[in-house]
Amino acid sequence: MITWIQKLLITFGPPFIWLVCLIYFTQGFRSFVWTAVSYQLKDRLKLSPSASQFVTSISFFPWSIKPIYGIVSDCIPVKGRKRIPYLVIATLLSLFPWVILGLQESVRNSRDQLMILLLLQNLGSAMADVVIDAMIAEAARHEKAKFAGDLQSVSWMTMAVGGICGSLFGGYALTNFQMGNIFLLFSVLPTIQLFSCGFVTENPITTSPLPEFSTCNDTNVQNENVSDEDKLSTDMPKPGTLMRKRSNKGGKKLLTSDTSKMHGKDESLPSQWFQSFKVAGYTLFKAFGRPVILRPMGWFFLSQVTIPNLSTVMFYYETEVLNLDASFLGTSRVIGWIGLMLGTFTYNRYLKSMKLRKILMFAHVTLSMLTLLDIVLVSRLHVRFGISDEILVLFGSALSDAVHQFKFMPFLILSGQLCPPGIEGTLFALFMSINNFGSTMSSFFGAGLASVLNISSGSFDNLVFGIGIEVVCTLIPVAFLFLIPKEATGIVT
Which residue stretches does the UniProt record annotate as biased composition, category Basic residues (predicted)? Predict the structure, then answer.
């Protein structure tokens, strides 16, 4: 382990590795402060479950438009640099909302002002996530490509550690600190992140701000449209030699053509930016319009948006009816993080060779069965068998997060396999945004369902019925699994 980390430090430099670990740790540690946000919405603002879930859904919307941040940073360098300036801007956006909420009690006690600041904070966090992903991709390219997997492993590991620490300390902080102090305490991490940006050097670009993906051969994008299911499974772009060959055949011609257009003698800088955006948007649109990409991503969106998310309602029920305290709920989230890591390990160790359709079917059928545990919890059936509320909540949390990871791993793998050469980073960000947007719409759907069923604080009579609808909806995506390539597995060939 020490040798592996030492190699990364020598290859990429301590400042860069520190910055990567810090950003991913902060992303995981966000559970610390968002636990406080949940209690602020519930106890201080006295919002109903549906209203609380609506505010949270609006706040997380910036995660649904991640490709915009990537395209902007690629097309509009700041003083010749495409990463560090945008990372500084992102860090400031993720820092100041917590400082304002920590210092101004009147602001955090206003629903609209709180929602706007949380929206800005998520905008900064999502932008930082995109920028650091781009920096990792660039750093792992060329002669350092052999360390790409190790760098990605460090990222996931530090985020998991951050999630565990945030979940553990979040409940403790709510018991021992004022709400404002919790927000100020969390702001320490983005403050350190801001100063850390100054220690990472970025070489300024010397050419016009052409996006990297403009070198993609658009002819290939057009000619690779497929319609039948067998071609979906056999014609998927694979990373490696095939992708490099495709990009080399026509990429140079397109780059020369685009560059000649954008380097006109009288062309202003805004005009160059416009041309960059035009090329980026057109290439991204053409790539995403291919059935081989559109159909699987359509399934993953459906698998999110068709299921109403009642997590906020369950949070209200667990705290008001079951009287579970913040420390215990933090512990349950730790179990969830452990289940997530266990799901990742199990998939990588045993399920890579299994067809993705089978894995996704297993995931949704199992999730529907695990959702039945919520019905047991709400209907109090477990009490007859001497099972405590705490055990049922912990057991359900760990298993649900592990199964969700079974579903998320194929999404990551298939996304990587489907990305055409030259636009991997931006298209992958688009895939993640689709997944995030589906989750946001799922939360809106859940908030609407809770409102229709008159589920509110102190009134959970129809909660069992709502969970029953969630169980049925979890099975809907199984009917659309034909959109997933038939022969696709987790093994890249």
Answer: 243-252
